[in-house]
TrEMBL record:
It is found in: Cytoplasm; Nucleus, Nucleolus. It comes from Chondrus crispus (Carrageen Irish moss). GO terms for molecular function: mRNA 3'-UTR AU-rich region binding. Keywords: Cytoplasm, Exosome, Nucleus, RNA-binding, rRNA processing. Coiled coil: none annotated. InterPro entries: ExoRNase_PH_dom1, ExoRNase_PH_dom2, ExoRNase_PH_dom2_sf, Exosome_comp_Rrp42_subfam, PNPase/RNase_PH_dom_sf, Ribosomal_Su5_D2-typ_SF. This is Ribosomal RNA-processing protein 43. Residues 33-164, 216-281 form the Exoribonuclease phosphorolytic domain. GO terms for cellular component: cytoplasmic exosome (RNase complex); nuclear exosome (RNase complex); nucleolus. It comes from the Eukaryota.
Length: 292
């Protein structure tokens, strides 16, 4: 039987044939992760952006900023919106149009891991009046496996790349030719009734204000297949795995969490094997991010 046909008809048996020889279909050993390349400032219209390639898996992240009125209960806190988009070009399984369940789950995954590391007070222009609203969107351009790690690393790189302009509020009149944005702010009159009032915020052209993100999550993922551990799985390997486990580290190398979304239990010896490999890889991954 043709190898390509055999892989489609018997995917587990196909993978097992390779793993029994301690090699994977793409030529890697079981303990070898794919090369990670990160480039930043790749989107000219964004205040922060990054493109990450993990083998063929490719994610592009962009951060766009808008001046808005803060939420009523958080007058000095900015706003961060997060979204993951799975482009049809990334996989035959992705369709254009409404967000899929996978995209929704990945969005929540990304939001839950990035939001705690952003100091929202850094996004405040004037308490109670004006804050920055950031929208982080990560696009999956090519999914050849381990997409969770790829979108998280791309998102972290993009947020670390953010530079915001200084903002000065100058009222309702502005000189012609100045870079001004009209922002509608709702205020209350003496009776407590809402009234709409417009202000103008002027942003300088030069962007120099970073978010000063000192700590962030670094993911290292594995799958288990027939009692064997594979780091940084391909999409074909993920499709037949028995379970998946992700270790989340701080840049200092400290383990901050472990994610295991279902699947079979992981024996203690295999868990420790994964953890050892993850600890060895973290410094290299952190160096990639710090170099951007």
């Amino acid at each position: 039987m043709d190898q390509e046909v055999f892989q489609k008809v018997h995917p587990r048996e196909y993978l097992a044939r390779f793993l029994n020889k301690d090699v994977r279909p793409d030529g890697r050993s079981l303990t070898k992760a794919r090369r990670v390349n990160i480039t930043v400032s790749s989107i000219a219209t964004a205040v922060g952006s990054a493109m990450l390639k993990m083998g063929k898996t490719t994610a592009v992240a962009g951060v766009h900023a808008t001046l808005v009125q803060p939420a009523p209960g958080a007058p000095d806190q900015g706003i961060l919106d997060v979204a993951v988009e799975l482009l049809p070009m990334a996989s035959p399984n992705y369709k254009s149009g409404r967000s899929s369940e996978e995209a929704i789950c990945l969005t929540e995954y990304l939001r839950s891991l990035i939001s705690p590391h952003i100091n929202m007070s850094k996004l405040c222009v004037e308490a109670g009046l004006l804050v920055w609203q950031l929208r982080l969107t990560v696009y999956c351009v090519d999914n050849d496996g381990n997409l969770e790690d790829a979108i998280l690393l791309a998102g972290v790189a993009a947020m670390r790349n953010v530079l915001l302009p200084s903002v000065r509020i100058i009222g309702e009149e502005v000189d012609e030719g100045r870079d001004a944005q009209m922002v509608e702010v709702k205020t209350e009159n003496e009776e407590g009734e809402g009234e709409a009032e417009s202000i103008i915020a002027v942003a300088t052209v030069e962007r120099t204000n970073s978010l000063e993100i000192d700590t962030y999550p670094l993911p290292i993922s594995f799958i288990l297949f027939d009692g064997k551990v594979l780091i940084d799985p391909s999409v074909a390997e993920e499709s037949v795995c028995d379970s998946r486990i992700t270790f989340l580290f701080r840049p200092t190398g400290e383990l901050r969490g472990v994610l295991k979304p279902g699947g079979k239990n992981v024996p203690e010896n295999l868990y420790q094997s994964c953890l050892t490999m993850a600890k060895e890889r973290i410094p290299k991954l952190q160096a990639k991010l710090e170099a951007t």
